[in-house]
Amino acid sequence: MSTTPFEKLITRNWGKPGSHTLDGYKKNGGYKALEKALEMGPAAIIDAVKKSNLRGRGGAGFPTGMKWSFVPRDSPKPKYLAVNGDESEPGTFKDRYILENDPHMMLEGIAIASYALDVHTCYVYLRGEFKKQAEILQKALDEAYQAGIFGKKLLGRDYPLDCYVVRGAGAYICGEETALLESLEGKKGWPRLKPPFPAVVGLFGCPTVVNNVETLASVPHVIERGAEWYAKLGPERSGGTRVVCLSGSVNRPGVYEIPLHVTVRELIESPQYGQGMPPGRKVKAVIPGGSSAPVLSGDEIDVALEFEALKNVQNMAGSGGVIVMDDQTCMVRALWRVARFYAEESCGQCTPCREGTAWQTRIIRAIEEGRGQPGDVEKLLNVVQAIAPYPPIGLGNTICALGDAAALPTHSFVTKFRAEFEAHIQEKRCPFGAGHHGWGHFGSGGFA
Amino acid sequence: MANEALFTPAEQMKFDQELSEILSHYPADRKSAAMLPALRLLQSIKGWLPPEGMTLVAERLETSVARVYEVATFYVMFHTKKPGKYTIDVCTNLSCSLRGAESLLAYLEKKLGLRAGEMNEMFYLRETECLASCGTAPCLQVNEEHYENLTRESVDELLGKLT
Ligand SMILES: Cc1cc2nc3c(=O)[nH]c(=O)nc-3n(C[C@H](O)[C@H](O)[C@H](O)COP(=O)(O)O)c2cc1C
Ligand code: SF4
Ligand code: FES
After folding, report:
1. Is A398's C-beta closer than 6 angstroms to any atom of ligand 2?
2. pTM, full prediction
3. What is the spatial distance between Cα B42 and Cα B22, in angstroms, rounded to a whole number?
4. Using CA of residue B44, residue B49, residue B51, residue B57, what is the dihedral sign?
5. Are A204 and A261 contained in the same domain?
6. How many interface pairs between A and B have CB atoms less than 8 angstroms apart?
7. Across the interface, do B135 and A92 touch by the CB < 8 Å criterion?
8. Ligand with the closest atom to the CA of A348
9. Element (H or E) spanning A210, and its range?
10. Domain-located, residue A436
11. Is residue A440 very low, low, confident or very high in pLDDT (cuts 50, 70, 90)?
12. Residue A303: inside a domain
């Protein structure tokens, strides 16, 4: 149980004037944690991050301190930090607001992490579409260089630290950490076989830590307030707060920083967050952690948006993207949108993923368009298990987890909403609406 | 090497200057790591990636033209064919579809007289995947600019400006 009262950390400066500038950040206490970290020294920083129970916010929830401790300290090679700002997981839009509203918080985290890991060069990899965000970040970085925080000296210490912003060019797969490294090396984003893990063999063959934007923005809070305080904000095995992204059929979509005991239902209904469903609508289904997470049916949403709680119901906290579907949503069409995404974004390296994602998309589309055949549901489940043999947990036959990410939604949609798939096949049409671009498949929310 | 068929002198200067800045971000023996920024620079100058431009990038990054093509064709934001003046990418992924993206796309198809995936001299209309604007859906992107919380009125206004 958490014992520290909740307060906003990551989003605490949002909306304050100049929150994206160095002045604004310093006014709110910025770069004090870096000062403190430099006093503590690398070993104590890594120890604090371990004790804080900070877990990666990019998707897998891996303990950050542990990841940092895998970097071989005695390696003669340079070490790198690569920041994952690819943010392409459908339903996820938090890192973008961190970059827009408070880039210095992440930069301070980068400086602390770099110092702890003996890194002198950091690359921040942003998805190609983040043009505005890249500009804001670059401005913040320029200010930090001018103020002597980055560059030849790190806050006056004899510790050179360079940081560069790199934009991708439109490829979801580059969010996968080894594909990101390939892309940073100027190649197409083909994930690498692991092991070796990036902490040992990463960018340019050198030890590299890959961390998400929000993960790094959390680091100053661990240092500033102490590991114990941070750990006690959350339940047993996850420290801190969490920034979640609420979208879909809900009155007030948006980004909310929450204590880790908040459930999916509370996020949707609470006046502080989603403010409930549009008039007359009920929750039919919710994806709790970006489109790679299995779907929850409307009666499974009393689960906390936290790593262990979701794991216990064979789901995942993932990237924090919470997508709400109401009772007028066609689940076949919703799944088709998700499946098509993975078929588009598969890098094509492994046969089960390349063939399986395309195949399942064709079957789902046929069902949605009234061309489904009896037995298609079983066929779908077979395809899914050829990609990721142990649903609902996955563990794919593939090089990277995109295979799992494509398979698990299909498995969960089909098993939890099977009657809807069968109805499409029997009626030879979508019971929710007309043909191509017709009304009805997704209710009539939004653009009208 | 100056490439007169490709660049005007001003463009050549911009390319050379910005490329040398970009190259300074990477280890000296890893020039080819600058591939994405170099292609982005080329595309920002020419609007797309003409073949002579890709050959130039290969030369400057001391790598093969095949490598440049491989990268240029892997990423959707790079244009190896000259697109219409405005590339309109409409997100039809799940969160946007839940807020009317299919109707938005249908509306654009009708107004532009193009089906998704088609282009004319002015417009290249595409469906795209999640643009990290799911909380402000539906959304689209024109070249590299984002537009969110779209309504019929705001789409009409936007199209009016694209001349
Ligand atoms: C297909 C795929 C896409 C991913 N996309 C992202 C992403 O956009 N952003 C991100 O931070 N992590 C993404 N990840 C997770 C990264 O591989 C990696 O676990 C993460 O960046 C590590 O940082 P963290 O420990 O701070 O979370 C993705 C993973 C996979 C398999
Ligand atoms: S699982 Fe899919 S995306 Fe990942 S490496 Fe294999 S083919 Fe590429
Ligand atoms: S689903 Fe359209 S921006 Fe995310």
Report:
1. yes
2. 0.96
3. 12
4. positive
5. no
6. 178
7. no
8. 2
9. strand A208-212
10. no
11. low
12. yes
Q: What is the pLDDT of residue A358?
A: 98
* Superfamily of B86-161 according to CATH: Glutaredoxin (3.40.30.10)
Could you state, in order of their start, the residue ranges of all structural domains in chain B? 9-74, 86-161
Q: Nearest 5°: phi and psi at A257?
A: -90, 125
pLDDT confidence band for A391 (50 / 70 / 90): confident
Q: Report the residue from A96, A253, A334 with minimal CB separation from B132.
A: A96
Cα→Cα distances B97→A178, A440, B9, B90, B100, Å: 31, 11, 46, 10, 5
Angle at A307 between CA A306 and CA A311, to 5 degrees: 115
What is the rounded distance in angstroms from the CA atom of residue A404 to the CA atom of residue B29? Answer: 37
The verdict on a CB contact (< 8 Å) between B61 and A90 is no
- Per cent of chain A over pLDDT 70 is 96
How many A from CA of A247 to the centre of ligand 3?
9
Go through chain A and tell me how many residues it has: 448
Ligand 1 within 6 A of CB of A52: no
A contact test, residue of B134, B146, B152, B153 with most A CBs within 10 A: B134
Kindly report, residue by residue over B13-38, the tens digit of the pLDDT: 999 999 999 999 999 999 999 999 99
The verdict on B142 touching A (C-beta cutoff 8 Å) is: no
pLDDT of residue B163: 87
CATH number for region B9-74: 1.10.10
Q: Which of A326, A361, A386 is the last residue of a domain?
A: A326
